[in-house]
Amino acid sequence: MSGPVLRYDKMVEEALRGVLREALTICREGLPGNHHFYITFRTGHPGVEIADYIRSRYPEEMTIVLQHQFWGLEVTPEWFEVTLSFNRVNERLHVPYAAVTAFADPSAKFGLQFQVDGIATTHPARRHTDCSADSEMTEGPAEDSDKQPPDGAEVIALDAFRKK
Q1: How far apart are CA 119 and CA 121, in angstroms?
Q2: What is the architecture of the domain spanning 33-118+127-161?
Q3: Which stretches of 47-88 are assigned E, i.e. beta strand?
Q4: 10 vs 4, 98, 107, 136, CA distance in Å?
Q5: Sorting pLDDT into bands at 50, 70 and 90, what band is 136?
Q6: Residue 138: phi, psi to the nearest 5?
């Protein structure tokens, strides 16, 4: 008997993205207590809208931090938008949930990883990127890079928040 194939993996993936969507919806006016979110997404994914200088610096993936300083968080069933400060310049980001590869709330010791379909990468990301409303754009250490984070910048690896 042939017919539609039940793609449980896709169903679970969409349900988990719903957790991110719901968390953002609840926190549109600010995050309660010590909650803060790390959201990692593919910058080259279709529908991602970020400033050209940010995309050129992070052509594959970047992580944003929503904590104290973010503005205009808009949440829809398909995407979210938020304004963050990058090197003291406010920029609007438009991110479809389909572009998100990871979501974490370290204060709750909670994290999710997602599969992103349709993205062909010629080489895997070598460095972790942290673009936060509370800090300047920074890069994690990489052996092949002589760039260093600005003084006082904090580089955070999401691995610490992932369940093993």
Answers
A1: 6
A2: Roll (2.30)
A3: 61-66, 71-75, 79-86
A4: 14, 11, 28, 36
A5: very low
A6: -135, 165
Amino acid identity of residue 24, one-letter, is L
Per-residue pLDDT at 69 exceeds 70: yes
Tokens for 39, please give them: 């959201």
pLDDT at res. 3: 78
**Bridge partners, 79 (sequence order):** 96
pLDDT value, residue 35: 94
How confident is the model at residue 160, as a pLDDT? 53
pLDDT at 141: 32
- Among candidates 76, 78, 68, 61, which has minimal Cα distance to 135? 68
Instruction: Give tens-digit pLDDT for 122-132.
Output: 333 333 344 44
pTM above 0.90, yes or no: no
Going by C-alpha positions, the residue among 110, 154, 111 that lies closest to residue 132 is 154
DSSP codes, 124-150: ---S-EEEETTS--EE---TT----PP
Q: Who's near 51: CB < 8 A, 6+ residues apart? A: 86, 91
DSSP state of 162: S
